[in-house]
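Design job #97: recover the sequence.
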């Protein structure tokens, strides 16, 4: 019986990781759109990107295929100007391109231009922007080869930010999140995030990362406490979704249904609504 329960929990955890790895900046579609497992994920859980690089031209070309043709042409013109500009002019051009790509919701090319800006003008503001953009791109990518490289780049950006201001909570939060996601020993990242929360109890990014790590590590009681605390600060569809997942793993189906329905209500997303309706029906049939 115990083996059956453990097996069931393992399956649910795996599904959650695939369905709901969408921390903080991710669109709600990440709840129901599986993210491919990174091919560089060793047994110990640490992502590797050795020998892997991201070609900005290739990323840009792929992104243009998914946006309006007129907007794509506009970005091409800006990119051509960037390539022939002087070093000083390239800084401004890279900032413009980062914003243009962000405007059309293409996180990866936007993040890569933010990284260029940070490398050209090495200050805290730029490294934080680059780290945030790269972490957002990592959260949203479905490419198992690019994902680990984006996480490594985010880790580097936040490491540089911490080097400039070791007390900066945004930098320490971002660095902790990259560590928990695979850039080093997870517990060192957890310790960093716990320190952030101690200093800033309402820090949503740090709290969310701690909550999702609790789910992934099977600490469902801790996850419930964490997500209830998050909801008390600021209710969100992702917090309710993860709360429902934690309750479900503990067999508390009534509480899980309530949490899932709250997630559905706040998200107002047709795809998520369909997913949650099926989930709720399954849970009610188990009662």
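Job complete. Output follows.
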């Amino acid at each position: 019986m115990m083996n059956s329960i453990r097996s069931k929990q393992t399956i649910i955890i795996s599904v959650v990781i695939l369905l709901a790895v969408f921390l903080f900046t991710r669109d709600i579609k990440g709840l129901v759109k599986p993210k491919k497992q990174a091919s560089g994920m060793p047994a110990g859980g640490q992502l590797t990107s050795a020998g892997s690089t991201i070609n900005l031209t290739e990323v840009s070309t792929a992104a243009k295929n998914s946006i309006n043709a007129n907007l794509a042409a506009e970005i091409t013109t800006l990119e051509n100007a960037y390539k022939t500009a002087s070093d000083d002019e390239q800084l401004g051009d890279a900032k413009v391109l980062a914003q243009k790509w962000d405007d059309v919701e293409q996180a990866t090319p936007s993040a890569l231009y933010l990284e260029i800006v940070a490398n050209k003008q090495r200050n805290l503001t730029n490294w934080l922007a680059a780290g945030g953009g790269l972490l957002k791109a990592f959260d949203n990518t479905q490419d198992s080869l690019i994902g680990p490289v984006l996480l490594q780049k985010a880790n580097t950006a936040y490491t540089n930010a911490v080097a400039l201001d070791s007390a900066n909570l945004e930098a320490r939060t971002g660095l902790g999140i990259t560590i928990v996601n695979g850039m080093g020993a997870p517990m060192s990242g957890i310790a960093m995030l716990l320190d952030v929360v101690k200093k800033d109890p309402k820090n949503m990014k740090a709290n969310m990362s701690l909550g999702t790590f609790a789910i992934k590590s099977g600490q469902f009681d801790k996850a419930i406490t964490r997500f209830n605390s998050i909801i008390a600060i600021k209710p969100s569809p992702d917090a309710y979704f993860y709360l429902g997942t934690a309750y479900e793993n503990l067999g508390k189906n009534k509480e899980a249904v309530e949490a899932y329905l709250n997630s559905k209500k706040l998200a107002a997303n047709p795809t998520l609504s369909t997913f949650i309706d099926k989930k709720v029906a399954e849970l009610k049939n188990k009662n």
